[in-house]
Design brief:
Blueprint (H helix, E strand, L loop, with lengths): L61 H12 L15 E2 L2 E4 L2 E3 L2 E10 L3 E7 L8 E8 H10 L2 E7 L14 E6 L2 E8 L4 H9 L6 E4 L12 E14 L2 E6 L10 E7 L1
Parallel strand pairs: 7-13
Antiparallel strand pairs: 1-2, 2-3, 4-5, 4-11, 5-6, 6-9, 7-8, 8-9, 10-11, 11-12, 12-13
């Protein structure tokens, strides 16, 4: 009997590593905005596609200055409504077929809420930023009603100060006369967001009248009415400028004339 027998080794089994498990992070709640942040704080500011006015006319040539001075000597400044309904000449510029020759064509817009004061905006073109915004001491509905009845002439006067050398349209305050009657004051101001909004909505309108849509909101001073037309700007001197509204039918004289004068 063989006593050198060795015990048999148990069969070797392959060693496998335990599967690895990855712990997923718990879902995090979305970050909450700070309590002092308003929901409209990131809203973009309103933008306007109006163009900047050109700089032409700021530095006229010597010949233009001499012509203006020569023309100012023979020019009279009309304030009262003339008896004749068909003017032959207006402040030295001839009127023919409803157009004044010798002036500069611009765009003028009268707008405002019917029960509030009317505003006058002067632009080089309907698509440009206003170069002048005046608030006049007369209700919008009243002035538009008077214009529908006949000629309206607005004279704006201010005191001449020899020590100050500013352009006439840069004067801050005016005494206003409507058809020869004192009607308060006209005040120059910077265009507001509402003014620019109106100019933007009317950028495609060269001439016409109507009501600006209010998106269903009622204003305490009534609807926002406007009247836009082309004007002829006639410069008499450094102390007088006249704006004549051009009638589109060409049969009559201008329905509205605006005079700026320093006395």
């Amino acid at each position: 009997m063989n006593t050198n027998l060795k015990p048999a080794k148990p069969p070797s089994l392959p060693i496998t590593k335990p599967p690895s498990f990855k712990m997923s992070a718990a879902p995090q709640p979305p970050p909450t905005p700070p309590s002092n942040a308003s929901p409209t704080s990131t809203d973009p500011l309103p933008t306007y596609a109006l163009q900047q006015p050109s700089n032409k006319g700021k530095n006229p040539s010597k010949s233009t200055k001499l012509f203006r001075r020569f023309r100012a000597v023979f020019r009279s400044f009309p304030i009262m409504t003339p008896a004749c309904k068909i003017p032959v000449s207006l402040n030295g510029s001839r009127l023919h077929d409803g157009h004044i020759h010798g002036g500069t064509r611009i765009t003028g817009t009268l707008f405002g809420h019917r029960k509030a004061r009317i505003n006058l905006a002067i632009q080089e073109t309907p698509r440009s930023l206003p170069i002048l915004v005046l608030e006049l001491a007369i209700p919008t509905g009243k002035l538009l009603q008077d214009m529908g009845m006949g000629l309206v002439r607005i004279a704006l006067e201010c005191e001449k100060k020899p020590a100050e050398k500013i352009k006439i349209i840069d004067e801050p305050i005016w005494t206003m006369y409507c058809n020869g009657r004192k009607s308060g004051y006209g005040v120059k101001r910077e265009p507001t967001d509402e003014d620019l909004m109106v100019m933007q909505l009317l950028h495609a309108v060269s001439m016409g009248a109507g009501v600006v849509p209010n998106n269903g909101e009622e204003h305490q001073d009534g609807e926002l009415a406007y009247m836009r037309a082309s004007f002829e700007r006639v410069t008499g001197s450094k102390d007088s400028e006249t704006y004549y509204m051009l009638n589109p039918d060409g049969n009559c004289g201008p329905e509205l004339s605006i005079f700026f004068v320093r006395i």
